[in-house]
Design goal:
Length: 293
C-alpha cells in the first residue's frame, strides 16, 4: 500500500483527497493518506479528523521519510515549488495541484529536479480530468474542425492566493484539453472584476475566455465546428478528484507521466500572458515571448 502525504490543509482539496482515499476508499487498498502538514493548526486538525489522517507534522519536509507519494495542494501556488522540492529531490511521485506554480521559473525548477532524481511529477486542474470534460471531448469528434470556442469560469484577479493564478488555470486546462492545442497569442481586457480574453490557437481556432469576477460561479464550454456544436457545463465535485487519483496511480504504476512538460508549463504561461496584456492596456501577447523570457 502506498503511503501518501498531503501538504497544504488550507485547500478544500486536502479534505477531498483524504476523504476519497481514507474514508470512501475509492482507491481500494492501493494507497492511504498517512500524513498531513498545514499552515493553521485548527484547520489542519479539522482536515485530519475528516480525512482520518493519523499524523500531523510540523514542517512539510517532515513527511519525506514517512510517505511514498506527495500531494501538494497549498491554495497559494507561490508555495508549491518550495513544498514540492523535498519530495521531488527524494525521487518520489508528486502531484502538485493547480496552479503548478505562479512563475515559469518555479515550474522549470521542479521539472529539472524531477529529471535529475527520476521523480514522477504531475500537476493539473481536476476540471481537466472531469467526466464532463471527457464527455465533451468525445462529442467533439462529431462537429468537424473547431473554428470558434468560448470558455467561462470564475476567477478573482485580485486574490490573495497568487492573483489570477489561483483560479484562471482551470479554464486554460479545460480549453487546452478540448481543443487539443496550445495558444499562439492573446489579448485581455478588464472591466470591474470581470476579465475577457481573446486567444488565437496554433491550429487557427479563435477562442474567448470569460473570467467571472462579478457573476455567478459556473464553468461553461461552447465549441462551434464546421459540422456542428458542443455545449457543456462542467461541475466541480468529487468525481473530478477521483479522475485525478486515477491519473496519479496510472503514472505510478506505468512510470509514464500522462501530461507532457509542454502542457505542464502551458497553463502558467497563458495566465502570465493574460496578466501582461492587462498590465499593458490589452496589448497582444505572443505566448512564445512569455515562454522564452
Amino acid at each position: 500500500m502506498l503511503k501518501i502525504g498531503i501538504v497544504g490543509s488550507d485547500n478544500s482539496h486536502a479534505i477531498a483527497y483524504s476523504k476519497l482515499i481514507n474514508v470512501m476508499k475509492v482507491t481500494a487498498d492501493k494507497c492511504r493518506v498517512v500524513g498531513l502538514w498545514g499552515q493553521e493548526d485548527a484547520r489542519t486538525q479539522e482536515v485530519a479528523a475528516e480525512g482520518q489522517i493519523e499524523t500531523i507534522v510540523d514542517q512539510p519536509e517532515d513527511l519525506v521519510d514517512l510517505v511514498d507519494v506527495a500531494i501538494v495542494v497549498d491554495r497559494h501556488g507561490g508555495l508549491h515549488m518550495e513544498h514540492a522540492l523535498p519530495f521531488i529531490e527524494k525521487g518520489m511521485p508528486v502531484y502538485v495541484d493547480k496552479p503548478f506554480a505562479v512563475s515559469l521559473a518555479d515550474c522549470r525548477t521542479m521539472l529539472a529536479a524531477s529529471e535529475k532524481s527520476g521523480s514522477l511529477l504531475l500537476s493539473g486542474s481536476p476540471l481537466r480530468y472531469a467526466p464532463a470534460t471527457t464527455g465533451a471531448r468525445a462529442a467533439i469528434e462529431n462537429i468537424g474542425d473547431i473554428k470558434i470556442a468560448h470558455f467561462a469560469g470564475p476567477c478573482d484577479f485580485d486574490s490573495q492566493y497568487g492573483g489570477a493564478f489561483f483560479y484562471a488555470t482551470h479554464v486554460v486546462e479545460v480549453a487546452t484539453r478540448l481543443l487539443d492545442d496550445t495558444v499562439e497569442s492573446l489579448r485581455a481586457i478588464r472591466h470591474g472584476k470581470n476579465v475577457a480574453v481573446q486567444l488565437i490557437w496554433k491550429k487557427g481556432t479563435l477562442a474567448s475566455f470569460s473570467y467571472l469576477g462579478e457573476a455567478q460561479r459556473h464553468y461553461h464550454v461552447s465549441l462551434f465546428g464546421t459540422e456542428g456544436m458542443v455545449e457543456q457545463e462542467i461541475m466541480p465535485g468529487y468525481s473530478n478528484y477521483i479522475e485525478v487519483l486515477k491519473a496519479l496511480l496510472f503514472m505510478i504504476e506505468t512510470g509514464v507521466r500522462p501530461v507532457s512538460e509542454e502542457l505542464l508549463l502551458h497553463p502558467v504561461a497563458v495566465v502570465e500572458a493574460i496578466v501582461q496584456s492587462l498590465a499593458n492596456d490589452g496589448a497582444l501577447i505572443n505566448l512564445s515571448d512569455v515562454l522564452d523570457a
